[in-house]
Amino acid sequence: MTTHVLDAGKIVLTVARLRDRIAERFPGSGLAVVAADLTETARATAARVDELNRSNLPLRALALVAVIAGLAAQIYVARLVDWSAVLARADVVGITQGLDSIVNLLLLAFAALWFVLTLEQRLKRRRILHQLFELRSFAHVVDMHQLTKDPTILLAGGSATPSSPERRMTEFELSRYLDYCAELLALIAKLAALYAASNPDPAIVTAVTGVEELTSDLGRKIWQKIMIINRLDERQG
């Protein structure tokens, strides 16, 4: 059975091709700049995902040394104690208090070991969450670029006010512009999904899901505008 996984290299190529399409259709536009920036981010994301898939050998060596040192220290302390003398001289209350202290020390020791053993994963999680925040920012930037692209002006007409945004696009250009925005949002979601595919940490999966929901909601608004343009085509037909 073939396992289907996201290919970071192909996603980067798709983003780069979309950048070229936008630059050719709308040269010098703000959306073309966003697409160029997203292409660089896509390349950096592919490199980061490849790096995060590799083990951090220094941290793993540190964890191994910490485990060995912790176990060795526990064994050394246990061998220093003359348990037969302790049991012979101590009363029940004294033994109970001593065991309670030993248990507390063991819990602290294992907590320290757990901190060292999970250090690599926590560092990766922090890096990935930071990068996912960057992708969320890209999604909002794309949404800002399509915000004033209102197809109802083409459909219903109406006079502009002094504060109205400048609208020079034809119906075809507006449709392409909105379609490019929707494609950018979809690719942002795919870049976010690369992090979840390489690291199924619950916090990372939740954050990736948040990016996917955000891009889906923003893309839904864009497709509503595209449907209005299609309605204009039907009316003209």
Structural commentary:
This protein is mainly α and 237 residues long. The chain has 2 domains: 160 residues, Glutathione S-transferase Yfyf (Class Pi), Chain A, domain 2 (Up-down Bundle); 61 residues. It is 82% helix and 0% strand. The longest helix is centred in the last third of the chain and has 35 residues. The protein is elongated, with a radius of gyration of 29 Å. The two termini are 49 Å apart.
Could you list some keywords that capture this structure?
Glutathione S-transferase Yfyf (Class Pi), Chain A, domain 2; single chain; mainly alpha; 237 residues; 0% strand; 82% helix; 2 domains
Helix content: over 70%
Give the CATH architecture of the largest domain. Up-down Bundle
pLDDT averaged residue by residue: 80
Question: How many domains is the backbone divided into?
Answer: 2
Percent of residues in beta strands?
under 5%
For this structure, what is the CATH class of the largest domain?
Mainly Alpha
Low-confidence stretches: none
